[in-house]
Write a structure and sequence with these properties.
This protein is an alpha+beta fold. The chain has one domain. The chain contains three helices and five strands, in the order E-E-H-E-H-E-E-H. It is globular.
């Protein structure tokens, strides 16, 4: 099963919207943490058969908050979406 995940950089508050296989999530978070001086916090995941498509939709929906790559500013709308839709693995 693939998931869309939301990881927040606790230093600046930015949120990464990414895709991974559920069983590879811990490894993915670990790799991201190695290259980041601030602590990263997993905000939640959305399991989805169409995870890649959902990720693209989310990138489009929150494009006004886009920073670079898969990173977005932490906006009230994005945080509300995560609180309403995402679960902890």
């Amino acid at each position: 099963m693939r998931i869309v995940y939301f990881i927040q950089d606790t230093g600046g508050g930015e949120i990464k919207i990414g895709v991974a296989r559920k069983r590879q999530l811990r490894r993915r978070v670990g790799k991201l943490q190695l290259g980041n001086p601030s602590e990263l916090k997993l905000l939640g995941v959305i399991p989805a058969r169409n995870a890649g498509e959902l990720q693209r939709e989310l990138h489009t929906t929150f494009s006004d908050a886009h920073i670079r790559g898969e990173w977005f500013r932490s906006t009230p709308d994005l945080l509300a979406y995560i609180r309403q839709r995402a679960v902890m693995p």
